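Researcher: First entry.
Model:
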Amino acid sequence: MKFSLTLVAVFVSGSAAFVPNTFSATARTDALRMTTPGYEIESESSGARRAFVQTTSAAAVVSVASASGLVTPPPAEAASSQLWSKVPLPFEDTLFDIDFDSPTHGYLVGARGAFAETNDGGKTWEARSFSNLDPEEEVTYRFQVLSFKDGEGWVLGKPTLLLHTKDSGKTWERIPLSPKLPGEPTAIVALGPSRAEMTTSSGAVYVTDNAGRNWKAQVKETIDATLNRISSSGVSGASYFTGSIINQVRDDLGAYLAVSSRGNFFLTWEPGQDFWIPHNRGTPRRIQNMGFVEGDIKKGLWMTLNGGKLFISSEEPDLTKDVFDFQEADIKTGGYGITDVAWRNPKEVWAVGGSNTMYVSFDGGKKFQFDKSGNAYPGNLYNVKFFPQYGNAGWALGSNGLLLRYTG
């Protein structure tokens, strides 16, 4: 059944302001609950309380690590570099996202209500809470997406929760979201004063120009409606599409990339298009994650596959084609899944994955070598991120509260 995306209006007149407080790691509880009047949040089932990992979807990247044979030892080749160092944190929860609004000031979010602030460029972090959160409540919030621009920031969490600040995080307000949204909110990007762009698990893209009071749809229909309408398109697996997408990634100019929940095809969308365009993966292996080369769709796409494979497309990909031209990178993972890839500059590329493995390329992604920075720590790395606007600072985020800072 075709689902038409229309304007979704939400109002914040009843939003309560949240003032972050400092608190010790020992005083921090595993359960937090918003107490905004008139907005109830149901308790999660025990199965839903597991750490939720996202690059744009947490469950997707967790599956990369768990399905790729993490019981095997690290790659046997000798480590040739150690360009990252561990940063101590006041908690040990899985980390999901990190962002800065200046070279020195930023925030870090994660599972079980993990929320920390830095004022020295990330060298030290202090745990934060909100004054009107009840620490005795059993509900656990998983803050999974964080985005700042010019002092204005957004935090997206689960159960569905959207927080907004206009003063670099000194105070926060909760933004109510309509229950009529198709799918669950999965990502949000700060675009400027009172402006943000939000996506959902059904492929809806919304923009607000008034700090979340109203949201305007940018896509005419959900992804499952599009695929049902063009079921004869020849896209492998489209007939089995369940309606959800994972690993939504946005490039610097607003183009999007998403992977089907089964990993059997991917989709692209650019501003001005009415619908998402599906594409075949061009390989029998399951897609684990995808992203943009240097954050720009015009510079190409990268794709990781089950079994620790990494492929990179040519520049200026033709988004109307069914299959893209991907070239396999020379990376020896020993079967470890690759969860994320990021370009520090046109030549230096980093890939992270299961068992905290790290790999670096100095030729633009053609050949990778092993980096031993995460060797001494248990768990998995899920996210690697660089900030060219702030001196190219780099961060790798993982389970067990692991935060690595680029020092190379």
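Researcher: Second entry.
Model:
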Amino acid sequence: MSKDTKMKKRISKTRQAKMREKELKSTLKFGVKLVLILAVVIGCAQLFFYGKNVVAGRSNGPAVRIAAKNSEARNNQSDSIKTGEQGNVLGPSLSDSEKGRQQTPETIAPFAESSDGPGNVVQAAPPSGDASLDPAGGKNELFPVSGPADASKPMIAFTFDDGPYYSVDIRILDTLQAYGGRATFFIVGSRVSDYKDTLKRIRDSGSEIGNHTFNHKNLEKISPEEVASQIEMTNDAVEAVTGFRPKLVRVPYGAFKSQVPGLVSYPMIQWNIDTQDWSSKDKDAIAASVLSQARDGSIVLMHDLYPATAEAFETVIPLLAAQGYQFVTVSEMYAAKGVPLEAGQVYFSIPK
């Protein structure tokens, strides 16, 4: 093969390589342009879609969170009084039942570990057996509340943290009413203004209202002044609605090992049965945890934010009632057992 022929082949291969490189670059540029165009089109479509749905109140995207916050801010208005948390948003006041239908509570993660220690002390005067108003049905119907606990029969104290919350509390209260029972509700003070009617029914039903601080803060991690503020702000909020000032405290997360006992001037109520309902949200698992551990003098920890908790409660109450259990408040149980509840002391259950 001549030198000219070889040279021509080399030139031809070089030209072909350059042409392929040029075609590749052209294809890449076109692809990049196409991607950019598609991104712009999709972005515009999303803006149009979400913007349209926000106006219509039907957004399923990020804008729904904004709408939900605005709705919650309007719901927080009660009796035309604004609080610092509610800001300057005005809107119609809603009943507890309306709030229960359209709000999902922000989960306040409870203490994930239970402490099982000796029963020591806590007490307030047992609630009276007054008749009460049933706001759920919109009727002024009175229903009886059974009398004091019978110390000769087994009893158990169900306790509910983090409420009030209408849609769950109403089921719990209805179940208690059906079996002549009562329970203790440890209230988060910042929720009181949203669920005044629910709180009133808790009190009127003969159940007990306890203090679970105002913002569910770990009392071991804040100043002594703020510890006192968290407790007294909640007591003030409850008293303003019910006329009753809580006498029992449940510290958030069960955290009381260090500074808390010396700062809390109320009996502190723990538990010996932790249903872990906040974690499982499984009615069968919740019910099983109660039924497998229930004994005379037990204090059961539950949370009145989850429908599964209400379902489990509706399951276990008839079964425990068939075993002869009375469903009483914490204060009633300690009074019936002759164990005083003392300020600054911690209680887990009535000792066997």
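Model: Note on the second entry: Confidence is low (pLDDT under 50) at residues 49-93, 107-145.
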